[in-house]
Amino acid sequence: SAVISQKPSRDICQRGTSLTIQCQVDSQVTMMFWYRQQPGQSLTLIATANQGSEATYESGFVIDKFPISRPNLTFSTLTVSNMSPEDSSIYLCSVASSYNSPLHFGNGTRLTVT
Amino acid sequence: ILNVEQSPQSLHVQEGDSTNFTCSFPSSNFYALHWYRWETAKSPEALFVMTLNGDEKKKGRISATLNTKEGYSYLYIKGSQPEDSATYLCAFHAGGTSYGKLTFGQGTILTVHP
Fold first, then answer.
1. What does the pLDDT look like over B5-31, one tens digit per residue?
2. pLDDT tens digit sequence for B39-80
3. How many CB atoms lie under 10 A from the CB of residue A82?
4. How far apart, in Å, are the Cα atoms of A49 and each of A61, B70, B101, B110?
5. Can you tell me the distance from the alpha carbon of A84 to that of A86, in angstroms, rounded to the nearest whole number?
6. Could you tell me which residues of chain A have a Cβ less than 8 Å from any Cβ in chain B?
7. How far A114 CA lies from chain B's nearest CA (Å)?
8. Which of A19, A32, A45, B26 has the smallest C-beta neighbourhood within 10 Å, fewest atoms?
9. Which residues of A touch B43 (CB under 8 A)?
10. Phi, psi for A85 (deg, rounded to 5)
C-alpha cells in the first residue's frame, strides 16, 4: 500500500491567516483526495485533486477557500485560506488505486485556529 | 444527502469481551461499504471493503457482515484487547461516483479496559 507523508502534523494559527498542507505519496497516483473532520463530525470529502486539471470540489467547499495544487502524480497541497475558528479540524489527504480498494490516508494535520 | 449512521456512538468493554457495532447506509445505489479503524494520533487504517450482499470478511479477531438490501453492516470484535481501543468508521461508496468519494459515519469509539 502507498506510503503517504503529510505535513505539518499540527499547527495553531491565527484567524485571517492561511495554512498550506503538503501531501507526498511514494508512488504515482491518478487522484488524491482531501478530507477533513471537524470536532464531533464525520470525515467529509473536500475535493479531489487531479493532476493536470483543476480540483473537483464537493458541495459546500470552494476553490477560493481551499485552493489545491497538484503539480505531479505524487504530490498535492491544500491551502486553508483566511482561516476562522470553524476551520479547526483534522485535515487528511488520501489515495486509492481502484474502485474496490480502500483509501490510504496520511497521518493528518491537526489545525487549531484561534 | 447520503445518511450513514453508526451505533453506538461509544462503547466501553472489558478485556476479553466480544462486541459489535452497526453501520446503516442507503439501500439504493450501493457500490461498496468500507470499514476503517482510527487510533488516536495515527491515520485511519482500512479493515474491509465489502461489495456483495451477504459478504462476510474476517481479519484476525475482527469480522464484518454486509446486508445491502436492508442497508446495514455489522463489525464484530472477538475477545477485545486494549490495543483494539480506537474509533471505528464505516463509509458508504455510492455507485457512479469516483472511487475516493466516500460518505463516512460519525464512528463508534471503542475503549477496552484491561
1. 999 999 999 999 999 999 999 999 999
2. 998 999 999 999 999 999 999 999 999 999 999 999 999 999
3. 11
4. 13, 34, 12, 33
5. 5
6. 4, 31-33, 40-45, 48, 56, 58, 92, 94-96, 98-108
7. 21
8. B26
9. 4, 92, 105-108
10. -55, -25
